[in-house]
Amino acid sequence: MRFHWEKERLQSWLKDRSLHEEPLCRSGGQPVDWAAIAASPLYADMIAEIRDEGERLLQRPEPELTQELYERFEKTGNRLAYEEKYFERRRRLTSFALLSLLDPDRQDYLQALIGTIEAMLEEPTWCLPAHMRGQQLDRNIDLFSAETGFALGEIIVLLSNRLSEQLRESILGHIDRRLFVPYLSYGPYGWETAEHNWAAVCAGSIGAAALLVEESSDRKAAILVKAVETMNHYLAGFGEDGACLEGPGYWNYGFGYFVYFADLLSQATGGNADLFASDKVKAIALFQQRCYLAGDRPANFSDALPHVSVHIGLSDYLADRFDEVEHPPLQLRARYTDDHCSRFAPALRNVLWFQSEAKRDANWQPGSWYLPDAQWFISRCVSSAGSFGFAAKGGSNAEPHNHIDVGHFILLADGDPAVAADLGSGEYTADYFGEGRYTYDCNGAHGHSLPIVSGHQQQVGEASKAALLDATTSEYVDHFALELAACYPAESGLQGFKRSFVLLKGEKPTLTVTDTFAFEAEGGGQVTEVIVTRCQPSIAEDGRIVLAGGLHLAELTYDAGRFRPAIIERLFSNHFGQEESYYRIHLIAEHSAEWSQQFALHFEFK
C-alpha cells in the first residue's frame, strides 16, 4: 500500500485544525499535566535520571565545537572527537528543555537551555562532518540537522511563553533556512528515495517541524507531500514480515521517527492522513517483540548492538495502537542517558507516551518466528533454568549496514557472554563505510560463524545469498535449513552447501548445526568450521570444547579425530570506540578428495 494525498486535500485538512492548541499529547490524546508527571511515584525513576543528568550538565561549560574538531574527520577519518562535543550539546538541549517543563520554577534550567539554543544557532551547520563531504553548509540536510530542527520546533511549541520573542523568531528563521528552504528548493536528496532509516528520520523530522511551526498551509502541505512520499520509500525497505534488516536499534531510530511524524500528521489532519493504516506498518510494529532473544539482547545482525534497551514511550504507543503489540518488560526500559546522541523526540515521548499502569510481563514470552522476507529465524526459550535465545539468518550479503554473514547464527543464555556471538556494530569511521569496510572484524566474514572453504570466505554482493530449504517451528523442536553455495566464489570448488539448524527446546535447549558440502567431482576440498564466541573457550579433550559463560556452562562437541582445533583471541573496536575481545574457534578438517563431506557441531548448555 502506498500513501498519497494531494497537496490541496492536505491543505484543506490542515486549515481546519491547529497543532498549536495541544500539539503534544499523552498516548490516547489526553492533555499533558507536567506537574502531575513530575510528582508521580510511577515516573520517579525516569524523572530522577533526567534530573541527575541536568545537575551534572549545570556544572559543565557549554561544549565548544571548534573548526579543528570539525576538520579532523577529513584529515584522519575520526568521527568521535567532534561528535562527542556535538552530542553533549544536544544532551544539554534535551535535558534542560525537559527539566524546564518538569520544574518550571528552576530558572537556572531555563537559562541553561537558552544558552545552549543560542550556541546551536551559531553552529555553521547542524550536519555532522561525516555527512558533509563537500556539501554547501546551508543546502545539505542530514539525520542530525533534521533532528535538530524538529527538536527546536517542539521546544518552541512547548515553551513558547517562556522564550523571548527575539529568540523564537531566530529559531524559526534557522529552521526555515536550514531545513524548509533547502528541502523545497535544493533537492532531491539521496535519502528522499532511500529504503532505510535516513528516509524516515530526515523526512519525518522535517515534516514534523513543518506541522509544528510552519504558518503557511500551502507551504506546509508542499512539505508534507514530499515527506509522505519518502515514507513510502522507507516502508518499501521492509518486507511484509516487518523485519528491520538494520536491527532493533535502527528500528527504534527509523521507525520511531516514522511514528512521531505519523502521530503529528494524524493529529493535524483530524485522522484523515493516517500512516498507520497498513498491514505492513503493523508487522513492523511487531518486529521488536519478535527480535529479542533474552532480556535486552536481540538478534543483533548487521550494525546492531549486542544490548538494546526498549524505548518505552514508542513501545507503549504502538501497544495502544495495535492489539497484538505487547507492552515490553519495564526492566528493559532505556535509561535516559542510554541514547549517546540524546535525541529530543524519543526522550520527550518516553515521558509523554509511557503507560505507567499498563499490564506487563517480567520477561519476553517464549516463541519461535520465521521472518520469510528477511530470512531470519528466531527462537526464544524460557524455563526454570533461565532464558535462552537462538537466531540464524539467510538473506544476502548486500543489505543495509551490510555484514558478510549469510548463514551466521547466535546462541546465548540470560546475561552470559554469547556462546555463538554476533559482534554487532564497530566504531564508525570513514573507512568503516568505505573501501576497508570488510576488513573490520565486525563486518567481514572472518568475524562471523561461517566456514572457510578451500581457503575462501563468503563474498560480498547481491548474488551472495541464501536459498531457503526449511523453516519449521513447533513446541519442542525448531528446524531451519539454507543452501549457501552461492555465497562462496567459484574458486572454492563448491557445487552445494547446505547448513541446517535443529534446536531442541527442553529445560536447557540444545542446538545442532550440520554442514553438508558438495564439491566438484574431482579434487574435493578442505573445510575450516568457524565459531565466533564471547565465552572463553578451552579444549577439554579431542571432540569437546568448554565455553565458560557465567550462570551457564556450554559445551561444543564434534566428531573426534576429524578436526584440528585452534582458538584465536581477537580485539576489535566497538561502536563507542572501546576495545573488546572475542574468540574465534577454528575446527580445521584435513583436505578430502571426497566430493561430499558432512560435519555436525553440537552445542549443549550444562
UniProtKB/TrEMBL annotation:
Superkingdom in the source lineage: Bacteria
Annotated InterPro entries: Chondroitin_lyas (IPR008929)
Entries under PANTHER family matching the protein: CHROMOSOME 1, WHOLE GENOME SHOTGUN SEQUENCE (PTHR38045), HEPARINASE II_III-LIKE PROTEIN (PTHR38045:SF1)
Protein name from the UniProt record: Heparinase II/III-like protein
Species this chain originates from: Paenibacillus cellulosilyticus
Lineage: Bacteria, Bacillati, Bacillota, Bacilli, Bacillales
